[in-house]
Specification:
Mean pLDDT: 84
Number of strands: 8
Helix content: under 10%
Distance between the termini: 21 Å
Structural class: mainly beta
Strand order of the largest sheet: 2-1-7-8
Shape: globular
Number of domains: 1
Length: about 100
């Protein structure tokens, strides 16, 4: 059963103030966001949220593959445009966790 969720390692090796979450074109500093595990269970999806005082974006971690070739992917729930930016580069939020 999952017990926690955390930011990708690069969030700790680069200053947080350089990271920005862009939700439908509106930017927020990543330093003002939380990341939280949502409703952990033994057999349910591993779901987590990135949230601020005004926004909440949910993601699922989908596990698959085989014992010899495990695979995983992060899936954003909902149909909003969510990006994570650092300096002049941005990427889809689901790709940020790889």
């Amino acid at each position: 059963m999952p017990v926690g969720v955390d930011w990708p390692e690069e969030m700790y090796t680069e200053p947080e103030t350089t990271w920005t979450l862009i939700v439908d074109g509106k930017a927020s500093p990543m330093a003002e966001l939380n990341i939280d595990l949502q409703a952990p269970s033994v057999d349910g999806p591993l779901r987590f949220t990135m949230s601020s005082d005004t926004e909440e974006i949910a993601f699922d971690l989908e596990l698959g593959g085989t014992a010899e070739a495990p695979d995983y992917r992060f899936v954003q729930r909902g149909n909003r445009t969510i990006e994570v930016a650092r300096s002049q580069r941005s990427r889809q939020a689901a790709e940020f966790f790889f």
